[in-house]
Design a protein that fits this description.
With 860 residues, the protein is of the alpha+beta class. Helix content is 15%, strand content 44%. The protein contains eleven helices and 56 strands. A hairpin with a 5-residue loop joins strand 51 and strand 52. The relative contact order is 0.06.
Length: 860
Amino acid sequence: MPISTLVGPYEVLALVGAGGMGEVYKAQDTRLNRIVALKILPESFARDAARLRRFEQEARTLAALNHPNIVAVFDVGSHDGKPYLVTEFLAGKTLRERLMEGVLSPRKAIAYAAEIAEALSAAHGKGIIHRDLKPENIFLTAAGRVKVLDFGLARNVTPPTPPSAESATIGTVAQTEPGVVMGTVGYMSPEQVRGETVDHRSDIFSFGAVFYEMISGKRAFHRASTVETMNAILKEEPPEIVADHPDIPPATDRVLRHCLEKEPEQRFESARDLAFDLATLSTASDSSGRKAVTGIPRNRRISIGYVTLAVMMVVGALLLGLHFGRPTATHFQRLTFQRGSVFAARFAPDRKMVLYSASWSGDRPEVFSSVADSQDSRPLGIRNADLLAVSHSGQLALLLNPALQMGGFLHVGTLARASLSGNTAPRELADNVDAADWSPDGNNLAVLHVNAANNTDALEYPLGKAIYVCTRPDWLSHVRISPGGKLIAVLQHSGLNDDRGRALVFDPAGTLKLKTELWDGVYGLAWKSDDKLWVTATTPHSLARQLFEVDLGGHQQIVQEVPGEITLEDVASDGSALVTMNERRILIQALSQGKWRDLSLLDRSIFDTISADGSTILFHEGGQGVGPLGATYIRRLDGSPAVRLSEGYGVDLSADKKWVMVWLPTVPAQYRLVPTGPGDPKPVAAPNISQARPLGFARGANALIWAGSTAENQPQTFATDMDGSNPRAISLPGVVFVIASLNGKYEVRTTGNHLELRDNLRNSTQPLNYIQPNDMFLSLSDDGQWGYVGRFTALPTLQILHFNLRTGAAALVTELSLNDLAGIVSVYRPAVTPDGKTIVLSYVRHLSELYLMQRAGSAN
């Protein structure tokens, strides 16, 4: 099934496995924004009534089970005539894969066995037996938990309550008839081999075969042929293991033998009893086995079992935490020591030199080199340039005259190439480029091209040949070619000025090979090998950006966690990497009555709007202090504490200051109107508008304003009722609302790269040709005569100009410049009240330090 296919509400991300019962995909639930496993029955199976019944049986069986050691089922449905099952997505490995790596320690084997027994106990308690327990159907998660999988052969033997005629059809499965052999040879019970009716004690025998293999590293009944294996299950005992493994306590061997009794009546009476006995086992038991539970009276065994199980769970959690949670020893060597921003870094071909571009103390970016075992850096003489890539032959890909976009996330400039030797000046190749990477042979470049005219970003390979295009508000960053040259990875972000997004992997022809899950933030990408990608991303469980490894099946695991925010720049095959540690803050400054006031709250205070009277601002927090959905606040300029109104991002404050429009970055996006005083939030339905983006409250009308796109992908402005219903175009295609007077009589709009003043009463427009393309219209008077405009002369110096809109005459009101320019990557969202007395703006300060990260066993 192609990547990105929608199966119901589930978006296919990658194929992770296939077998006789169907294909399993990694998918994203677009409603709840969570990763799931999607199991789809093949079309040939769907036509087979018996196989279809087995699939439906698996769905019913799993739905009936809710236990931490049993894979959870979320949904079941049908797509194109094929039934599908949706379960939790597990990261880790099967027990079979773990056993292929070597024999387990007795402590680990007992810990795993106890969790398997707990899963069987829960299933048997609901009258369900598994009938195909084997290492392939036991999963070890990355967090160290055991999950029992694939109840496709399970059957309901004794319903908890007598079934009605209806429940006999939907909720029960007929017993297998005698003479039918089901299961996996080598792990079958004797009664399964004989084709007899089985009960829960059959699972206990299969458990014993699995436990024997975990303890000894060998299969209990493996023979040269299927017939000989089945004969061994019926007549032979598995080889003794205590003699070959003296570290295994005799008590463990007795529990194991008790599971493998040929007659069901001689095995453990229940999986619960088995779980109790496993809980009391200890690898510290002496050779006489005096700590075994066989001598404890039954009435005391249960109580002691509960206590011991609790203790074992605590100790086991600590031990598992130490084993799985302890990160590989990592050494960080700091390479930069000045105050400012590092924009990119790459290993030189010999891996001994590091090249990077940075801006120190507010200066323009420059390219530097540093030796890995030194603390000294030297400039290469390439100024006003960002480093993009380094080829194996020492050719540099550079970005000349880079201009910051997307709140400092994106640099756009002129692509050029230069020699590391510095003998010649850079040769320009293409304009409006964001990122590039060399092919392994150094003959071609993969390039990210920004086309502002049609609001698209294109991945080109080679330069000039687009193999993938996305349309704004999506945008692309961080292109990298795999070491073998067969794959190209890129990050695609899902909103303007927002680093949420995912990694996409293409072949050189542009065929999509992988689409990862949607991360809450992703920035930084490199190939560790041809089949492993490293990214730095945030998840709901790690709000600070961390380093992840992703394989071509979409499986991911954490490589390195740090207390702050990390960005990957480059990685070598041995795991040594160049990373930056970042402090990125967004702050709010207000100028009123000649005094500056800091209105920031947490780490990313993003200004939204100011009330017309200049008394109150609306802003939201989008950093670690509030979680992945952000939080919206209002604050008075008199220094009063900020008031939290809602989760989500602020859009606009109503003219009467009674309501705030908020959007939540869920999938799909949600919108709401939140009262600033008493009252309940009101939901706003997402309007049926292509690429809808909320702009706020209509002035002088009871409506909401939205930006969107036409079928021809032209921008357009729309209005809806206050609940999001009744969308209607209020501008011609290509015309987008910018700002309105408070009374709603006048509006400033964009048409292409030009601004126009619209008189809504007279239905007329006036071009504002004297406003420069990069000027920002900040406020408009009620009579349409005057307007305040912001103009950057040089970042971060901002001029506030007062324009007579009829004549074009302008007067400079003030020129604003921040005193400390280090790390200032963006000044944005300035606003001026209609009377010109109050100015508010946000600015981004991004400070970073470059490190060489070497994990244990790696060497540069």
